[in-house]
Amino acid sequence: MKPFVAALLLAGAVLAAVHHAEVIAHRVGEPFGSLVLAVAMTVIEVALIVSLMMTGGAQTGSLARDTVFAAVMITCNGIVVVFLLALTMKRRIAVFNAEGTGKALATVATLSTLSLVLPTFTTSATARPSTRRSARPGRPGAPR
Question: In this predicted model, what pLDDT tens digit does every residue of 59-77 receive, in sequence order?
């Protein structure tokens, strides 16, 4: 299958999934509707990342981490700056909901810690050499 046709089919499938999630979200109402949409978008993103990692081989080992890092940077820098700038230009003062902002930043901080920092400390011994010093000859516990 040509890559262009595959991309069109993928875009159609994603749009159909989002449409169905919106219909369900509208039927269940708030706050569960927002949760349905958030879970649907997360499942779509994870499915795309996993499918890319499965077809890419060893070269795509860091794709999930890089994707989360890009999402964090876009959220923290791009969206916040654009909306604050647009709001300030329109009203001459920036007003925002501190409760919602705090929850969003806590979520971003948790996701970035789990996906960017934690894997550094949880890699297996076979993935990289041990950083422990070997015992020197003449010291207790040294090989003979």
Answer: 777 777 787 778 777 777 7
Q: How many residues does the chain have?
A: 144
- pLDDT at position 143, please? 54
Buried b (16+ CB within 10 A) or exposed e, 59-74: eeeeebeebbeeebee
Residues 6+ apart with CB under 8 A from 104: 75
pLDDT tens by residue, 85-134: 887 888 887 776 677 777 777 887 887 787 777 777 776 656 554 455 54
> 7-16 contacts: CB < 8 A, separation 24 or more?
10/48, 14/44
| pLDDT category of residue 138 using cuts at 50, 70 and 90 | low
d(CA 60, CA 48): 13
Asked whether the beta carbons of 40 and 17 are under 8 A apart, the reply is yes
Distance CA 115, CA 108 (A): 11
